[in-house]
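Problem: given the chain below (246 residues), write out its structure.
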Amino acid sequence: MSIYVASHKPCPVPASPLYRLLALGGADIPGKAVSDDAGDNISSKNKYYCELTGTYWLWKNCTDPVVGLCHYRRYFNLIPIKTHESPFIGATYAPPITDILENQAQSLILQGLLGRYDIIVARPMYYNETVGEAYRTDHGSVEWDAFIRQLNRFYGDGRHLMDCENRLHIGNMLIAKKEIFDLYAGELFGVIDAVFDEVGALEAVENARYQPFRYPGYLAERFTSAFIRAHRLNAYEAQVVLIQGL
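Solution.
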């Protein structure tokens, strides 16, 4: 059972056997356990696909019975602590946050959760509008329309319900048994690759908060809700620690 920490640059990783550093884009990072340019990979697409090149590598190369992916600036916190009830905790990489992440109870709680839930994802952000309306405003309509067409092709327009969804699971983060992870990844790349083939690589926009060329990663975050809805999965929504200053 491993949670892989996706990163494209040197970063601290919790001192726990639960975590393994996964280098993205073939980056040469000291202390990395594995790199997304080994074996069957799409590492060359990292500029566009972001942490999804790590997702793909885990799908095709990881044999762990339970697999998860987080981010060097975003970690799941599975320990219920009353003083940390908010969906997201913003903190520097130092105690007491490192003590929480390195606590052995994280692994023990994870095992219990996977006995009751199909998948663990980040607690959602909520919009006052639909996810689609927000995406069109913040990003663009061309790739969103292509995305909806592909979701309809995979699931039918009555199963994913993205036209009325107002929740977003950030970060392309999840933990699941390998069979669920593989199902997720197979359908994710079936959708995202088809959108990328249709829309192509978009140009960078100077000083843009959301770079257009990274839309495959942005769409993948929205895909998480569609996948859970389409398969009627029982999802545990975990608190996320947002590491600042890295």
